[in-house]
Request: fold
Amino acid sequence: MGEFRMPSLGADMEAGKLVEWKVAPGDAVQRGQVVALVETEKGVVEVEVWESGVVGELLVEPGTKVPVGTLLATLAGPASVAAPQPPAAAAPVPAASHVLASPAAKQLAREHGVDLASVKGSGPHGVVTRDDVLRAVGQEPPRAPAPPSAPVLAAPAPPAAPPVGGFDAAAMRRAIAATMARSKREIPHYYLSADIDLTRARAWLDAENARRSVTERLLFASVLLRASALAIREVPEINGFFVDEIFRPSQAVHVGVAISLRQGGLVAPAIHDVDRKSVADVQAALLDLVARARAGRLRSSEMSDPTITVTNLGDQGVDAVFGVIYRPQVALVGFGRVAERPWASEGMLGVRAVVTATLAADHRVSDGHRGAVYLRAIDRLLQKPEEL
Amino acid sequence: MTATRRADVELAVESALAAVAPEADFATLDRKGNLREQLDIDSMDFLNFVVGVHRALGVDVPERDYAKLATFDACVEYLLAATVSSART
Reply:
């Protein structure tokens, strides 16, 4: 029997209100399917289920506010379901040795004699966390540090049709303040910046866009996102989560994108696997994500998955962005405006398209030297835009 | 150029702008003022606006002409000329 619990949709989220069930008892659900709307003080999010099966009992009534981790519904696994629907994609039952679990969870499981295969993971991609093991042994996990999830800075309250509750600017501002204050308090930030010559990238982009239809045109933002993701391969210690006093690097590169909401505030949901997408695919994902963020249709996986965040304030005319890291991530990349500037190279002074890239990173995990290597890698990648 | 055509183009521009800036009040918009500044439009919004215009009027605004769409009136004039040119060819 599976369980569907109130997810953590932000590092500081303690409770959420179940707004609406999208399923009913007996419904077959697929992994990744939206099954409920949940409202936090920061907004409404579409919440997905992480295993396929059939919905059992709905245990919480819409309108009820419950703590993170509260059992919301039961789920019968596909193996035990004799439903007339096409069989759900069989979710393999992992052998204990193949259970994805954090080092802290594994250690705790050994201490308590817990079989990790019997513990439902609440981390990204079902990773079993230390808190999951604590719950398995009947202990209430501490609220902080939270499991990897946290990019919600504000409510994805839609301008056109607020799903529920409308838009509470004051609550959103409080949430932003609390999240950022805690980040500044707990994370020993260091900051670096580097000016990057984008002349080649601009020429490549201009040529690409000249041959593309208007619906397929690329934005500089997509190119910068892609370069930021690829550069992580050289400095993996800026991609992941700092939880339980341990850095947990992420193999996946899910880039949180800071998106300003038109009614104020911002969210930073993830574009998944940016390192494995083409620039065009990154752009398509970015356009979709921004549209849904502004319409209040973000999904829980997008809120909980970012492994690093990129913010781009170039359109607002700023030269550089020195951001605050979103816990439990360990780095934030910023880009200012792409502008023509005087640029000296090989003894010659010319005019080049230049952007200032910045890195805010966590000194508990990396240092300035590695941060500099990362920014240099972005620079190098952008000098060969055709290879992005 | 007929009044109807101008009205159609103005409506298309308004609709495309409203899609990216739902809070826009076209009754008070300065039609000779900078659109990006008045409506807080970024490059992604602008791309979506251009795509919206393309879908409504069939005009593919090349990137090099983006600067010609700085104001509401400029958009209308540009698109009127483009639709006339398109009709002749």
Notes: Chain A is about 25% helix and 25% strand.
